[in-house]
TrEMBL record:
GO annotation, cellular component aspect: nucleus
Entry's Gene Ontology molecular function annotations: tRNA (guanosine(9)-N1)-methyltransferase activity; tRNA binding
Chain ranges of the SAM-dependent MTase TRM10-type domain: 23-214
Native species: Trichomonas vaginalis (strain ATCC PRA-98 / G3)
Catalyzed chemical reaction(s): guanosine(9) in tRNA + S-adenosyl-L-methionine = N(1)-methylguanosine(9) in tRNA + S-adenosyl-L-homocysteine + H(+)
Protein name: tRNA (guanine(9)-N(1))-methyltransferase
GO biological process: tRNA N1-guanine methylation
Length: 237
């Protein structure tokens, strides 16, 4: 019987300084669009338990990963940040995210920006987002609620006299099941559309295949990019 070797292959250590340099090079190559901003409204933390909070943080991490690698990235600004949120985000290396596109603010969204610059994205409105205004900030309510807090973002927007808009999903595609999106899917839609200016193409790329997304107006197959399967759906209110 052959004896096992006592020689253990050396594990190549990753130099932290080299990793930092590589990250700096990637950040230097990042192109930030001179256009709209994405606001991640973090005020709803008390409405989620630890399990749903971790799910949300995972979606936020996916949002950052997609945005930073886009042809043109959009600024992502987190409002209503507190020590709890900072701790959760740091667990997914949020303290090392590029400040070229990431900002953290302790104050609420209405205290951070002029109200006339804000648009709250919510499914609970008849106002359709037909395009992205380069001078506006588009707010995503960061809450995984499983329908237990219906209309909460609409009520907040109405209380503070903020304009509301919904993504133009039924105007461009049909799908099986409900039109509910994860936080990272909303971010991906905004970033993709800002790059390609095509809602149909964007939605077909983002909506998971299991939802069988189909264009309202047929397009050539060659113009479609095959959508990839995405993380499980959670309602964004």
């Amino acid at each position: 019987m052959e004896e096992s070797s006592d020689i253990v292959p050396a594990v190549k250590e990753i130099n932290p300084e080299k990793r930092k340099i590589n990250r700096s090079k990637k950040n230097a190559n990042m192109v930030v669009a001179e256009g709209p901003k994405i606001i991640m409204d973090m005020q709803f933390g008390a409405l989620m338990n630890d399990h749903t909070t971790k799910k949300l943080i995972s979606q936020i991490s996916l949002s950052y990963a997609f945005d930073k690698n886009a042809k043109e990235s959009l600024p992502m600004i987190f409002t209503s940040m507190d020590d709890k949120w900072r701790d959760y985000i740091n667990r997914v290396n949020g303290n090392m995210w590029s400040n070229k596109i990431i900002q953290y603010k302790d104050v609420s969204v209405v205290d951070a920006f002029p109200k006339e610059d804000l648009i709250y994205l919510t499914a609970d409105t008849d106002n359709i987002c037909t395009s992205l205004d380069p001078h506006k900030c588009y707010i995503i309510g960061c809450l995984i609620d499983h329908n237990s807090h219906k209309n909460i973002t609409r009520d907040y927007a109405e209380r503070h006299n903020l304009r509301m808009e919904r993504l133009p999903i039924p105007e461009h595609i049909t799908m099986d099941g409900r039109q509910v999106l994860t936080v990272n899917q909303v971010v991906e839609i905004l970033v993709r559309y800002n790059n390609n200016k095509d809602w149909t193409e964007t939605l077909l790329q983002v909506i998971p295949q299991r939802k069988n997304p189909r264009p309202v107006h047929p397009i050539k197959q060659s113009e479609q990019e095959k959508p990839k399967e995405k993380p499980s759906f959670c309602r964004i209110v």
